[in-house]
């Protein structure tokens, strides 16, 4: 029998793609979200509120083998007060599931846990988050990894970086550029574009999330990313070409922000080991 994977936040920006890839890979997917319209029809829909006081929550969520926890409000609004409000409920959800028999818990992390940093990010990189979102995610990671030492549940903290694709549902510069093009704007105000980031398409990210979650040898922080920094200007110009947009970037219209790193990307040593074993099995 295939593993049962519970995906929370299954109808979110990343969650929809994770669900689709997990279904394609042949897993039994239990999709949980407040609204489930439009989710891949191959899944088992589950609407049980994950932050409620439901007794026997693990069983009511389908007794999954793996939980890929994507549920998080206001991910695009980095200083929303909801991030700190939701911290304790997210940790409580992990504890309920891990104490009831869940064997593997994957939670979505973010480069924003780290804050300002120059170079590659690995397990030992110090974290000094500069937003409420980063502070809450960093605290959640520290808490569940500490709790996991006393629980029979593996924890994977999947740290994502700069995500592209599915721009109609996103809130990145690519989504804003798409709207500006559709509105008929000729130019788009831009910075120097010299900062280097770790870009990954959301479908590629979904694949890495699933592959990292279903394996049981590598735990803790796993950077789900390309590991290859690219300047913002290069990536945005590429995006314009790929979509055959007519809009042009207005370089220097905005100053570079002093708190943005000149270059930041993920170390893929752990991910490479996961993919190496996966490729050997194909």
Short summary of the structure?
The protein is α/β, with parallel strands linked by helices and 282 residues long. It has helices spanning 15-24, 57-60, 82-100, 132-148, 173-182, 202-214, 232-242, 269-281; strands at residues 4-8, 28-32, 44-46, 66-69, 104-110, 119-121, 154-160, 162-164, 187-189, 196-201, 220-223, 229-231, 248-250, 264-266. Helix 1 (15-24) packs across helix 6.
Number of helical elements? 8
Q: Strands of the biggest beta sheet: in what spatial order?
A: 3-2-1-4-5-7-11
What profile does the largest beta sheet have? 7 strands, parallel
Which oligomerization state do the chains in this entry correspond to? single chain
CATH superfamily of the largest domain: NAD(P)-binding Rossmann-like Domain
Query: What string, H for helix and E for strand, traces the elements in order?
Result: EHEEHEHEEHEEHEEHEEHEEH
CATH hierarchy: architecture of the largest domain: 3-Layer(aba) Sandwich
Indicate the proportion of strand residues: 15-25%
The end-to-end distance, rounded to whole angstroms, is 19 Å
Low-confidence stretches: none
Give the tally of β-strands: 14
- What value does the average pLDDT take? 93
Shape: globular
**Total separate domains:** 2
């Amino acid at each position: 029998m295939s593993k049962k994977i519970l995906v929370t936040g299954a109808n979110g920006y990343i969650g929809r793609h994770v669900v689709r890839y997990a279904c394609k890979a042949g897993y039994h997917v239990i999709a949980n979200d407040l609204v489930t319209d439009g989710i891949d029809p191959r899944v088992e829909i589950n609407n049980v509120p994950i932050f409620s006081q439901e007794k026997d929550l693990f069983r009511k969520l389908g007794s999954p083998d793996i939980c890929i926890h994507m549920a998080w409000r206001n991910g695009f609004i980095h200083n929303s007060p909801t991030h700190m409000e939701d911290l304790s409920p997210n940790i409580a959800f992990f504890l309920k599931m891990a104490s009831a028999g869940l064997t593997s818990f994957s939670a979505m992390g973010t480069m924003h846990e780290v804050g300002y940093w120059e170079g590659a990010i690995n397990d030992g990189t110090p974290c000094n988050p500069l937003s409420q979102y980063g502070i809450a995610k960093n605290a959640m990671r520290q808490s569940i990894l500490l709790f996991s030492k006393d629980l029979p549940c593996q924890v994977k903290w999947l740290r994502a970086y700069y995500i592209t694709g599915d721009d109609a549902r996103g809130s990145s510069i690519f989504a804003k550029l798409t709207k500006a093009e559709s509105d008929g704007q000729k130019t788009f105000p831009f910075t120097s574009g010299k900062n280097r980031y770790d870009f990954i398409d959301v479908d590629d990210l979904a694949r890495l999330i699933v592959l990292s979650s279903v394996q049981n040898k590598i735990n803790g922080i796993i950077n789900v990313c390309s590991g290859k920094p690219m300047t913002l200007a290069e990536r945005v110009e590429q995006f314009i070409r790929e979509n055959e947009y007519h809009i042009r970037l207005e370089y220097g219209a905005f100053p570079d922000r002093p708190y943005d790193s000149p270059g930041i990307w993920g170390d893929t040593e752990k991910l490479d080991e996961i993919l190496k074993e996966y490729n050997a099995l194909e």
